[in-house]
Amino acid sequence: MRRPLEARINQPVTIVRGRHPVHGQETELAEVRRNLLRDLPRIDSKHFYDDAGSLLFEEITRLPEYYQTRTEEAILAEIADQVVSLTGARELVELGSGAGRKIRLLLDAMRRRGRLERCVLLDINETFLTTSAEALADDYPEMEVRGVVGDFLRDLDSVGMGDDRLFIFLAGTIGNLYPRQLAAFLGSLRAVLSANDGFLVGLDLVKDTGRLEAAYNDSAGITASFNLNALRVLNRRFGTDFDVEAFEHVAFYDRDREWIEMRVRALRPTSASLGGGRELRFEAGDEIRTEISRKFTRQSFAAALAGSGLELAAWFTDPESLFASALVRPVRAGASR
Ligand code: AVJ
């Protein structure tokens, strides 16, 4: 997959693995079991993204009901130059790297300012990460490209230190974190950010319930396939034996918690072996939560930042206020309190 080194002597692509034992099967297996044994069983949404799931997500981004991707792209096209000049970035670091149209809007803006030196991509899917890194190295030969295979909750420190960097975390993926995970994420982000680094984050916004629920219950059934794929991923990676056909897709908006929740629901009695002699039984109607996707307001996002050492520097949204791009910076020493 990687081309010979001499083909890109001026633009080396390096792929490294996150330092933490995310790939240690025992740790992950223990975590998967623990989550399945909760009162409301849970599968972490990172398990959606094997190759099939990553492709299904790309299909989701093109659905008529799924406004997020095209709205964020329109915002970024509008603000890229401003964000790059506000941050003076020479290096772009993408967390949870996607398939790459949106990152190019920012790289192009950096190129226009003549300050494009380096790009680091961090993603959990090695295949997608390598493909994206290679494509970016081809299209931006003046920049150095590095990939980190890892989990943005555990492997941020593998990105290393630097300055004049713009970190980006697009697509509203930050909304997939539970409040406690979000606080931990912001803490580890603060720890790798230098005083002059910036963080641009995509946030899906609170809106009409009908519109939100339609985005997660598309008429083509792609989100349903994406959701149920999590059971297949568990079967393959962790040796469970969920009968995927015995479950259906569920997605609804929880107005109190301001998040979309996706679940898989048993259509009939079924059971799954978790290994180690443990068996999980389901009656018809029993559910497993597979994802939360938080919807923010400017106020709730600012509240999430409170106490993290990070603050909101700018807030950009589309004309309909469907989605926002928030520019976040470390709180300046002496500027707080
Ligand atoms: C990964 C955050 C962009 O939560 O909307 C899409 C994943 N889940 N449809 C989201 C997803 C169901 C998505 N993001």
Written overview of the protein:
The protein is built from nine helices and 13 strands. With about 325 residues, it is α/β, with parallel strands linked by helices. The model has no long low-confidence stretch (mean pLDDT about 90). The chain binds N,N,N-trimethyl-histidine.
How is this fold's topology laid out?
Elements lengths: L12 E5 L7 H12 L14 H10 L7 H20 L3 E5 L5 H12 L5 E6 L2 H14 L4 E6 L15 E5 L9 H14 L5 E7 L4 H7 L6 H17 L8 E8 L4 E8 L3 E6 L2 E5 L4 E8 L3 H8 L4 E8 L5 E8 L7
Parallel strand pairs: 1-4, 2-3, 2-5, 3-4, 5-6
Antiparallel strand pairs: 6-13, 7-8, 8-11, 9-10, 12-13
Helix pairs in contact: 2-8, 3-4
The structure holds N,N,N-trimethyl-histidine.
Q: Give the count of helical stretches.
A: 9
Low-confidence stretches: none
Our measurement of the CA-to-CA distance between the termini, rounded to an integer number of angstroms, reads 52 Å
Secondary-structure element order, N to C: EHHHEHEHEEHEHHEEEEEHEE
Main beta sheet, described?
A: 8 strands, mixed
Whole-number radius of gyration? 20 Å
| Shape verdict | globular
Structural class comes to: alpha/beta
How many beta strands in the DSSP annotation? Answer: 13
The helical percent reads 25-40%
Hetero ligands:
N,N,N-trimethyl-histidine
Give, in spatial order, the strands making up the sheet with the most strands: 1-4-3-2-5-6-13-12
Can you give the mean pLDDT? 92
Q: Beta-strand level of the residues, as a percent range?
A: 25-35%
